[in-house]
Amino acid sequence: MLRHLIGIDIGTTGTKSMLIREDGQVIAHAYQGYPLSSPSVGRSEQNAEAWWEAVVHTVHDVLAAAPGAAGQVVAISLSTQGGTMVPVDQQGMPLRPAIVWNDSRCGDQQRAFEAALGAERMYHSSGWTLGRGLNALQIAWLRQHEPQVFEQTAHFLSVHDFLSYRLTGQRAVDISNAGINQVADITRKAYDTDILAFCGVREEQLARLVDSGRPIAPLTVRAAQALGLPQDVLLVAGAHDQYAACVGAGINRPGRAMIGSGTAWVVTALGDKADFSRGFAQSRAAVEGLWGSIVSLSTGGVSLDWLLQSVIGDQPSSAKPDYVRLNEQAAQRPIGGGGLMFFPYFRNASFPLPPADWHASFLGLDLSHDRYSMARAVMEGVACHIAWVLEQFPVDDPSAPVVLSGGAGKSPVWRQLLADILGRPLRIPTMADLPCIGAGILAGLGSGVFDNPDEALARFSPEEMLIQPDPEHIRTYRDYQQLYRRRAKGLAALYQEPPRESRSI
């Protein structure tokens, strides 16, 4: 009887689970969403229990779709959001809401770290530049602002290790996530004692570091009962969602690149060694021996969600889903939005723009524009920034197709204008939920179901959609991009001033 695997993707706005048979057949998938809260400006929090509840719910759903399959499941692995921190007690129960990766409250801690150790120390140790969030500074913020919670905390966990604790009783985190959490030295695969001292934590309060695709432990009796699985099901170390998606997309060679379009838009490129020369975020990839470079536009997908919910969403409802109507209407607006541009920097800009107290902006609004002109401008603005980023990456063939994963691949307008703005074909895997596929492959590698990533992916026989750029649109967008970049630099100069007092949290 064929063995089964479960790949689980714990994202920022919801969790997906996928039941996969060892011959590459996707048997079932399920989704459960959960909210983000924003208690005040710059803050982003989430109930960590919602992750566990969503895991239980979605695993039950995929098993219910395949009666009898539960007994054939041999392993589980996780794809997770990175840089989110939750303090827990000795029993693994959260002591407060998790502080999410896109939170920006830690400005004072950022400046204190720069004074104590220097910003470059954080980058060259963790692979990620020093910002106003991620676990290290979040822990330091907790120590200063919520000392009672800090003192009660037995363990400071991120998403992967929180769920590892729930599933197996062992706190374990893959090395790709540990770097993003900014507490580990990714070159040495060990915790950075100087960073821990700055945060005021001990190594035993953090999780064990494990390479992606390596076994962690079998499920506990309690977890097995909660999920409806045998107790001998093995949890295998997963990966940050972008690296799990790379595994699922078959990006496992140096020089390959992928654009992930979700809550954040992320450009990920793989190499055979770390590259600290360009300032890109560096991580160990999910495939052994490979390194990844990442640049993230944290509000790429959020920008369109905001427009739909806050600007378009209050209009009379249509019989068609909101996104369907949005795509239909945006497609009818002129290329370049009739001079309208959107700069998607709700929570700071990202490389190659300089740090500043950024705000999102529309420029060029005219009385001829409507809400769908704005929607197209949002899509074009995100695409222009991603094209700008991708130009900075060393790739093996600058004319080769770029893999696009995530929600934008389902939008006929967004995927076409992205190909036009890049001037390169887009390769869009038609298999849904690449992070789940990647997590399932990692589960199979760690449990001995698969020998290597290539062999695993070959079993899936993945189909793809190829989006070719329109030559005429390439020429039009070339001038548009140049204007976009000049205006973005002008905004950078405008916003490069000390943060206002009201934004210091």
Please name the defining characteristics of this protein.
505 residues; alpha+beta; Nucleotidyltransferase, domain 5; 2 domains; seven-stranded mixed beta sheet; six-stranded mixed beta sheet; 23 strands; 38% helix; disordered C terminus
Helices and strands, with pairings:
Layout: E1 4-10, E2 14-21, E3 26-33, E4 45-46, H1 48-64, E5 73-80, E6 86-88, E7 98-99, H2 107-116, H3 119-126, H4 135-145, H5 147-152, E8 155-157, H6 159-168, E9 172-174, H7 175-180, E10 184-185, E11 190-191, H8 193-199, E12 208-210, E13 215-218, H9 221-227, E14 234-240, H10 241-249, E15 257-261, E16 265-271, E17 281-284, E18 291-297, H11 300-312, H12 322-331, E19 341-343, E20 361-363, H13 371-390, E21 402-406, H14 412-422, E22 426-429, H15 434-447, H16 453-460, E23 464-467, H17 471-495
Parallel strand pairs: 1-5, 5-14, 9-12, 15-21, 21-22
Antiparallel strand pairs: 1-2, 2-3, 4-7, 6-8, 10-11, 13-14, 15-16, 16-18, 17-18, 19-20, 22-23
